Amino acid sequence: MRGKRTATGAALAAGALAVTGLAFAPTAAAVTPQTATINASCGIFGGGAATLTATQSGNAATITLTSSAIKAPVAVAPDSITSTLTLVKASGGTTVFSGTKNPAMPSGSAVSVGPLPGTVAFGDSLEAYGGSLKMVIFGVTVTCKATAKQSPGPFVFD
Length: 158
Description:
The chain is mostly beta strands.
């Protein structure tokens, strides 16, 4: 009987330690900042302020771009714009976020694309300036480029 109590006590202690370890485990890593603004030029399709919103889960990340200054050239159905967002890595090279996620947009409305998925590595620092956003809408390619560095700074992925 005594051996059974010792084994039960040891099991309870191990369980309590496991629960305590979970309570103090580090939280999931996240991107900082979560939002940044850029000034974008899209040629004849307009330009102006745009907001980039980033999320991260491990090495999977998404970025959404919204802008009331950049207008949809034609009415667009949901998930019909093929978008490729290329961001520049501080360490050299680029990271691409691409997909066909967008809400329905009437002609002349504010542009919103994403969330566009991409893959990041721990410590990646990504900046829109020097990269581009290409949107293919009914066969017409619209290319937007940041005219200055994003604010408050590059996205850093943990």
